[in-house]
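Hello everyone,

My group is preparing for a crystallization screen and wants a predicted model to guide construct design. The compound we'll soak is zinc ion. Before spending weeks at the bench, it would help to have a computed complex in hand. I've included the protein sequence and the ligand's SMILES below. Output in structure-token form would be ideal because that's what our pipeline reads.
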Amino acid sequence: MGKKDEPGWKQERKRNRQLKESVSGFSDSTGSTFAVEKQKARDLRNSSWWKKKISEGKCYYCGKNFHPSELTMDHKIPLARGGKSERINLVAACKECNNKKKYLLPVEWEEYLENIKKSD
Ligand SMILES: [Zn+2]
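Reply:
Good plan to model first. Here are the tokens for the complex, ready for your pipeline.
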């Protein structure tokens, strides 16, 4: 007995914990969609489709030639923006382009691509 009337601070703590759980539960559900897409990307990275793609040794963005080991898998539309791990959304990118895409603002990235096209 006595378990039912817990002191106020204890109840408060319980409430906070529940609150935290519901918040992290939310991020888990979005996180798991990501996990599925990331797993799909991993599977595709092992596929002959991808191996053939990188064996061409060409970066999708700058069009320069690279050793297959230097090419990374890039989501044209990032997962964070609703892109999917589908062949149509996956391209081979060199490390430089991949980094630029990550750190540049979308507008700056567009400019970068424009400059590449011009220099060709
Ligand atoms: Zn490149």
